[in-house]
Fold this sequence. Notes:
Helix content of chain A: over 70%
Oligomer: heterodimer
CATH class of chain A: Mainly Alpha
CATH architecture of chain A: Up-down Bundle
Distance between the termini of chain B: 12 Å
CATH superfamily of chain A: Formate dehydrogenase/DMSO reductase domain
Largest interface: A-B, 63 and 69 residues
Structural class of chain B: alpha+beta
Order of helices and strands of chain A: HHHHHHHHHHHHHHH
Number of strands of chain B: 4
Number of helices of chain B: 5
Strand content of chain A: under 5%
Strand order of the largest sheet of chain B: 2-3-1-4
Low-confidence stretches of chain B: 181-193
Radius of gyration of chain A: 23 Å
Number of domains of chain A: 1
Order of helices and strands of chain B: EHEHHHEHE
Number of helices of chain A: 15
Helix content of chain B: 40-55%
Amino acid sequence: MNDRVLLRGDAGDAALTDSLLAPLWSTPSLWWLLFLLSCAGTVLFLFSIYWTVAKGIGTWGNNIPVAWAFAITDFVWWIGIGHAGTFISAFLLLLNQKWRGSVNRVAEAMTIFALVNAAMFPLLHLGRPWFFYWLVPYPATMGVWPNFKSSLPWDVAAVTTYFTVSLLFWYMGLVPDLASARDKAVSRARKLAYGIFALGWRGSGYQWQRYRIAYVLLATLATPLVISVHSVVSLDFAIAQLPGWHSTIFPPYFVVGAIYSGLAMGLLLLIPLRRAFQLEDVITEAHLDRIAKLMLAMGLMLAYSYAMETFMAWYSGDRFERYTYLFSRPFGPYAVLYWIMTALNVLTPNIFWSARLRRSSPALFIASFGILIGMWLERFAIIVTSLNRDFLPSSWHFYAPTWVDFGLLAGSVGLFGLLFLLFIRYVPTVAISEVKRLRLELASQAAGETAGA
Amino acid sequence: MRDHDWPAGSYVGEFADANALVAAVRSLRERGYTGIETYSPMPLPELDSALAFRRSRLPLFVFAGGLAGGAISYFIQWYANVYAYPLNLGGRPVHAVTAFIIPTFEGTILGAALTAFFGLWVVLRLPTYWHPVFELPGFDRATIDRYWVAVSGDDARGGADVTPSELRSLGATRVVTLDRHETPAVGRADGGS
C-alpha cells in the first residue's frame, strides 16, 4: 500500500547519505531568517533573566498565596515537551517500530533542548540562582544537607538523570552518522570537528555488534524515565495538601499530558523541517500519520484524566475539592483560560479520526500549535487556579503576570529555536545508518514478496 | 575477530552492497577462515553467527553499575538525613524509606546508563583516531555505501596466493593488502569483553 511507505524513492546508499547530510553543507535563506528571529528571542530571554537576577523575583507577578505561577508552569510545560523524544526513541525501539529511525534524532534533540529550558525556570525561581548548588548533596562547611523527604530534591535527581541519559543516548546514536559526516566533509575544519566527535568510528563488525547491545541497553534504561520523570514532577503537586493538587491521579495524568505535548512539538518541528530540507522521501506521510495516531490516543487518555479528576473531586465529598474543580476552575476568575484549555486539549485531537487530516501537514501543524498552547494553559490552570483560591477566602488573591513573566516564556521559546536551528545546521538530523538499514530490509522484503508471488 | 591489529599478509576486499558482503563472509567462514572482520555503514545482525564474537559482558557491567548507582544514592540520603543532619518534621521518621526510593531509582538508572555509555568506549577502545584501515584508498566510503571484508594474515587458510583470489571469486570489486601500512603498537590478544 502506497500510503504506508516509510521510505520513498530509489536513491542508493550514496545518494541517500548525500541528501541526509545536505543540511550540513548549505544554508537556505529561511534558516537565516529563523536564526535571526530566535537570536532576538534569546536576547529577550537573557534580558529577562538579567532583570530577574538584578532586581529580584519581585519583578514577577507571583506573590503569596500564588507563590508558583509562570515559572513553574513553564518548567512543567518544557519538561513535558521533552518526553516525546524519549518516547519515540526508546519506547518505540524496544517495540521494534521501524518508523522511529527517521524521526528519532529530531525528537531526541528536542528533548535535550526542552530540558535545557525547563531547568532554567526552577533555578531562577530560587531567587538567588547562584546558590543552585545547595540543591546538590555535598559536604558543605555549613553542615547542612538537602531534605530528601521533600519533593524538590526528587525533582533535581529526576531531571538531572533524565538530561544526562537523554544526552548520552542521543550522542551514542550520533556516532556512526558523525563518522559519515567526517568522511563526506570537504573542509579540513569540518573533517576535524566531525572526526573528533566520531571518536574514530570505522564501522567494524565488532563495533556494530557491541554498539547494538549498548544502544538497546540505554534504550531500556531510558524507557522507565519516560514514565518516571513527569511522575516525579507531578509529586511536587500531589504530595501537597492543596485542593486541586492533592490527588493520586497526578502521575499518570502528567505523563500522558507530557507525551501529548511532546508529540505536538515534534510535529511542529518535523513538518517545516522535512519541507525545507526536502526530506519528504525519508520522513513521509506515514510517519506523520503514526505520530498523529499516537497524539489522538494521548488526547483521549488526557480527556479521560480530566473527567476522572473532576469526578473524583465531586465523589470525595470534600467541600474544598468540590469548590476548586466544580466552581473555581470552570466559573472562577480564570474560567476563560480553563475553557480554552479544555477545548484545545480535548476537542483538537479528535480531528485525527480522519485519515486524510492525519496526513495533511497544515492540519497537523495548526492542531499541534493549538495543543501546545492548550497544554501550557493546563499547567497554568493546575498551578494558579489552585493557589489563588485555597481554604481561606480571606487569603484569596488574584494573580496577574508581569512583562518579565512573558519575557521569560517567549524568550525560552527563542532559545529553544536557536538551539534547534544550530542542531539542524551542524548535526545529522536523521539517523542515516538506521535509514540505510531500513532501506536494506524493505528491499529484501520486496525481493521476498516477488519471489513468493 | 577484533581488528585492533592487522598482521602481515592481511587482505581487504571491497563489496558494492550489503547482501554481497553477507554472502561472502558466510562463504569464507564455510571455507574455514576464522580471522575475518567486516566494515559497513550500517549494522548487520545477519553477520553475528558468521563473525562469532564472544558473548558481551557489557550487560553484566551495566547491571553492576546500576546496583552501585542505587546503593550510592541511598547511602547519600541516609547519610544526609539520618546521620549528618536529621530533621524532625512533625515527628515523621528521619529514615524515610518510601521517600528515599525515588532518588534511589534515579541513581540506579544513572549508574547503569553511565556504565553502558562509557563501558562501550572501553570495550571498543573509543576514541581511537588512527587505525590501519583508514589508510586504505577509498576506505572513507565504508561509512557511506561500501562494504569491506578483511581477512587476517594469521589465518592458516589464507595467504598471498589464496586469499585475494578467493575474495575476488566471492564478488569483491577490489582487493587490497594491508601490508604496506604500519600496524599500531597497541593490541592485546584476540578476545572480547
